[in-house]
Amino acid sequence: MTPVPLSIRADSLKPSGTLAIAAKAKALARQGVEVLNFSLGEPDFDTPEPIRKAAIDALGSGQTHYLPTLGDAETRAVIADKLTRENGIPGITGDHVAISTGAKHSLYLIAHCLLDPNSTRANEVLLPVPAWVSYAPIIQLAGGKVVQLPTSPAADFKITPGQLKAAITPRSRLLILNSPSNPCGTMYTPDELKAIAAVVAEAAASIAPDLVIVTDEIYEKIVFGGIPHYSIGSTPSVAERTVTINGMSKAFAMTGWRVGYCAAPGEFGARLIKAVDNLQGQMTSCITSFVYPAIRTAIRECGADVERFRHAFAKRARVAHERLMGIPGMVCPTPTGAFYLFPDVSAHFGKKSPAGKTISCGADFAEALLLEAHVATVPGEEFLGCGSRHIRISYACAESQIERGMRQIADFVAKLR
Description:
By secondary structure, the chain is of the alpha/beta class.
């Protein structure tokens, strides 16, 4: 029987490398092997109790029916107020906010509302790389063309205003920013983001009138390097051409709740959110209805929990980076946000592992490290750019695991020949 074909879209889409390595680690664990897992970007803390109680109370009171596609008015207003007070974004009301099934879904919706396949209009997306694994597939699924802006460890994985200016053309439609960064664990300073905003504003007034900034700020509250978080959407010159993406997953340890949101001010923002409403209405409708009170509780009442998490991540960052830098050949900037290290391991390319595997790229290093030293990391190839020289290490885990994991990585490296 001739196989029934799938769509070109489905057949050409690569699976997530992060989830693939996690699956291998779980397979080893099922065989009775103890694996130290540094692959998933998920806080190991429990969701704070007031947030859980708010959802339980809502469920108990019967809040189990459909709500408006983008969320109830009260919750959207709470998010708008947060973006106004904390992020300084002007002109945000509840009508400028869309709540979706995770920040990834928000990004997907925005991409499909702003990009067209085979379009004669601008459809190029400027993407600083290395970048989170899902940005490029989301862009491509929406019909956009990825234009990579390469960065390096020496520059803390950050683009420069000059580099951005040289990359912008009349075809430029989106600039995606992620600060603090997954996978790099570094972030832009306020002055650096203002300089980037100035380039975008100048280009929008001349060669790229359709250019929009999409800023993914999911790690905004996990900062510890002395650099304050700055929302580029608060810059007046680009405020009304900036879409801010965020969610509850990382800061509030709510990964499994699947809550994300996007917001954009002004007339453009209102039209964009209406388009998101129409698209989401044909996809998922509203998120789980009894979660909305939990969102409000998290934003209004759980700042102390977030700060407690942040201090824990700061300590883990110091321990993880210090131990990593004690391993010969590792090159990695000092982490300043999120909970990742992205070391360059290319000093060990050309060597062989104890089991005889030749290490020629980040994927080889990560695979041998998992199978032979039982430490799970993510191959850097998935993050594009210079990623093939790197692996990603998530330190969203106990300090004891970090200490053990770094010892096992050090032992593995010492045995490479």
